[in-house]
Structures are given as structure tokens and as C-alpha cells.
Specification:
5-stranded mixed beta sheet, 17 strands, 3 domains, Uridine Diphospho-n-acetylenolpyruvylglucosamine Reductase, domain 1, Uridine Diphospho-n-acetylenolpyruvylglucosamine Reductase, domain 2, binds flavin-adenine dinucleotide, Uridine Diphospho-n-acetylenolpyruvylglucosamine Reductase, domain 3, alpha+beta
């Protein structure tokens, strides 16, 4: 179905290609808008047909069920745009910009503050929603404000960082029906881009050494139950390498569940449940998932 110019709404598209786990059922409808106008057009179309919408970024923190995913799935990955004000350390990024590209461009402009993001394969929109972070840094440290579109009122407005009530991997955006369109970041200007690149490369090498980058995953599955590390607890339970179907707890990093080839969402879910039960038995509390779910009845 063609809405305008090249904007298409496709029917019955496999969502497995839209997640880094390479898992997911079939979207009833799928759209990949490249501009805010296109996004408004697809939402208008969905509204006129009383179809619900759900948002996907790069699908790098998303477990999508194996069944048909009803309604319109909107993938934001093609909504690109990056404006850099070198002097003042400001970057305006569209929601679909990739986090690693953002980090590289910031380093190139001598802006310090996002070197930790290099190995995170998500979009800026997803990072803002998740308060993505690593090595002690997080989005909350350098975000200034965002522009959102309300799924209910269809209005566009701005929110300040303080409105988002950020804490560890959490923001109000995980509960509110809002689509992140763009974000403004305030970084520290005037740094040597050579040094920033060196830091970025070092961070990337450390990640490649300690995380299973060659296999499909969604990064850390569980939140760290401060002061402990979820991966350490899972390892202590002897679950490293434990496998259900083609889903396995990574040998390299126990908080990662990897897809060894043909894993289904049901295998990942079974493995998540098993880890939660074993942790509860041994340590007396339930590990909470970091990964978001789509197409399931219950959310963690
Ligand atoms: C190998 C690997 C390493 C990782 N390492 C890290 C790490 O170090 N630190 C970390 O924090 N995360 C890490 N992650 C997880 C993930 O990359 C981040 O959480 C990322 O921010 C998710 O972005 P995304 O675009 O993929 O969002 P998705 O997974 O597509 O979506 C996540 C949630 O955000 C919502 N969403 C996405 N975009 C928008 C938008 N524009 N507007 C409104 N809602 C939106 C979705 O509906 C969903 O609820 C890793 C993942 C992988 C695969």
C-alpha cells in the first residue's frame, strides 16, 4: 500500500529482521518513515482505520513474540539527521540516528561525553527511552531535551530532561504513549578528536573482548540488582552455556542470551523464566529484565 511519494505500509512482514536477536513474528502492518511528516501520515492512516501503533528502534533491546503482531509496527531507524554545533557542544539528533554513528561524529567534532556509547547498536530514540549507558555514563548525563509526538493527541511538543525522571535504565517514556522524534545533547566541547577516537576504540575493543558480538543478542537481558551484577549471579548458578532450543546463555558474558541459529521467542522466554526462578531460589529475589517485550500479554 503506497501512502505518499515512496512511503509504503507493508502487510505481513517478518519482524525477525528488525531485531538484533533475529527473532520476531509477523507484523500485520509495517512502516519505516524517513521524516516526521511521513510518520504523521502513517499515524493518520492508522488512526483512520482504528489501528494501534507500536514503535521499534533498532530492535536491540526488544523481544518480539513469535505470533502475528497486530496493528502497525513503526520502525524509526530511517528517520535520520544530525546537526552539530561544535563551539557550544550541542548536537541535535533525529530518533533514527545510530548510537555508534552519533558517538563517532561527536568525537570527530571534539565533543566529549558519549565515548561509552560506541558498542551499543541502538538508535538515539531507543537510547533516550531506555536511558542507555555503559562504563558509568548514561544518556541522562548528556541529554538536554527531546521532541516527542503523542500517540494519543497526535501533538508534537518538547520535554526537558528533568521531565523524563531518569534513573538506571528507566524513564517515564517506557510507560507514556510518546514517540521520540529527536533529542538535543549538551556535550563538552574543545577536546582533541584524536584522543576521543582512541578512547572510543579502546571501549570498543574491551566490549568485543568481553561480550559475544558475533552472535545475535539484545545485550544484557537483566538489570543489575545493585550492588550485584546479574551476569555474576547467573555464572555462580552454573548456568553459563545453558541452552533451551537455540537460545543459550552466552559462554562469554552470562547476562547475554544468544541466538545460536533458530531460537524462537518462546525459547528466550523459557530461559529468562528459568534464570529468574533459579536466582529467586538461591538469592531470594527476582531478577528484573532490562529487555522490552512486544506482542506478549505481560510486561516485566
Ligand atoms: C550487543 C549489544 C550490546 C548492548 N550494550 C548495551 C549497553 O552497554 N548499554 C545499554 O544501555 N544497552 C545496551 N544494549 C541494549 C540496546 O542497544 C539499548 O537499550 C538501546 O538503547 C536500544 O535502542 P533501540 O533503538 O534498539 O530500541 P529498541 O530495542 O527498538 O526499543 C526499546 C524500547 O524503546 C522503544 N522505542 C524505541 N525507539 C523509540 C522512539 N523513537 N520513540 C519511542 N519509543 C521508542 C521501543 O518501543 C521499546 O520499548 C546492547 C544491545 C546489544 C545487542
Amino acid at each position: 500500500m503506497i501512502l505518499s511519494n515512496e512511503l509504503k505500509i507493508e502487510k505481513f512482514v517478518s519482524l525477525a529482521n528488525f531485531t538484533t536477536w533475529r527473532i520476531g513474528g509477523t507484523a500485520e502492518y509495517l512502516a519505516e518513515p524517513k521524516t516526521v511528516d511521513e510518520l504523521e501520515d502513517v499515524m493518520q492512516w492508522a488512526h483512520s482505520k482504528h489501528i494501534q501503533c507500536q514503535i521499534i528502534g533498532a530492535g536491540s533491546n526488544l523481544l518480539i513474540n513469535d505470533s502475528e503482531i497486530e496493528g502497525l509496527s513503526i520502525c524509526m531507524k530511517k528517520l535520520h539527521g544530525l546537526k552539530i554545533d561544535k563551539e557550544n557542544g550541542l548536537i541535535v539528533a533525529a530518533a533514527g540516528e545510530s548510537i555508534p554513528n552519533f558517538c563517532r561524529q561527536a568525537a570527530k567534532a571534539g565533543l566529549h561525553g558519549m565515548e561509552w556509547g560506541i558498542g551499543i547498536p541502538g538508535t538515539i530514540g531507543g537510547a533516550v527511552v531506555m536511558n542507555a549507558g555503559a562504563q558509568g555514563g548514561s544518556i541522562a548525563d548528556c541529554l538536554s531535551s527531546i521532541q516527542v509526538l503523542s500517540l494519543t493527541s497526535k501533538k508534537i511538543f518538547n520535554l526537558k530532561k528533568e521531565d523524563l525522571r531518569y534513573s538506571y535504565r528507566t524513564s517515564i517514556l517506557q510507560k507514556e504513549p510518546l514517540i521520540v522524534l529527536s533529542a538535543i545533547f549538551k556535550l563538552d566541547p574543545g577536546h582533541s578528536s584524536k584522543k576521543l577516537y582512541q578512547l572510543i576504540n579502546k571501549n570498543l575493543m574491551n566490549r568485543i573482548k568481553s561480550q559475544p558480538y558475533k552472535l545475535p543478542s539484545c545485550g544484557s537481558v537483566f538489570r543489575n540488582p545493585e550492588p550485584w551484577k546479574a551476569g555474576k549471579l547467573i555464572e555462580e548458578l552454573g548456568l553459563k552455556g545453558y541452552r533451551i532450543g537455540d537460545a543459550a546463555i552466552s559462554e562469554k558474558h552470562s547476562n547475554f542470551i544468544v541466538n545460536l541459529g533458530n531460537a524462537k521467542a518462546e525459547h528466550i522466554t523459557a530461559l529468562i523464566n528459568l534464570v529468574q526462578e533459579r536466582v529467586k531460589e538461591k538469592y531470594g529475589f527476582r531478577l528484573r529484565t532490562e529487555v522490552k517485550q512486544l506482542g506478549f500479554d505481560k510486561r516485566d
